[in-house]
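Per your request, structure below.
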């Protein structure tokens, strides 16, 4: 894939996510995609597990993620620096900051995503920390 195509794909995925268009996101992913459960910790595999995870996530949080910079790395991965805002469903601000998303691509589709901030133990992202 050309860099311009990858950038268009990434921007389309983020736009669909922000519109809560799950199918719009999943069309850019492989069937066996690996995805971090940022709000829960751990990983899901496959489009239906992502659908279930996002459905749960959006019933608890209102995340908005805007790409700031999209870079192709020498290792073939795509690094996307994003501005992420996470609110509670009642509108309380839980997180407003930058996060790094790292993507593996296969045949023009996303095959895996990891959080650049993630610890090796796969804990939930600080962006989704519950405030009491």
């Amino acid at each position: 894939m050309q860099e311009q195509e990858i950038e268009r794909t990434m921007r389309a995925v983020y736009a669909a996510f922000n519109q809560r268009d799950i199918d719009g996101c999943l069309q850019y992913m492989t069937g066996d995609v690996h995805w971090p459960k940022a709000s829960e910790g751990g990983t899901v595999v496959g489009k239906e597990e992502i659908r279930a995870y996002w459905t749960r996530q959006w019933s608890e949080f209102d995340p908005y993620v805007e790409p700031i910079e999209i870079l192709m790395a020498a290792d073939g991965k795509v690094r996307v620096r994003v501005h992420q805002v996470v609110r509670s469903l009642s509108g309380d601000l839980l997180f407003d900051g930058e996060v790094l998303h790292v993507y593996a691509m296969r045949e023009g589709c996303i095959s895996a995503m990891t959080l650049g901030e993630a610890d090796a133990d796969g804990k939930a992202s600080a962006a989704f920390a519950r405030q009491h």
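The longest strand covers residues 93-106.

Regards,
D.
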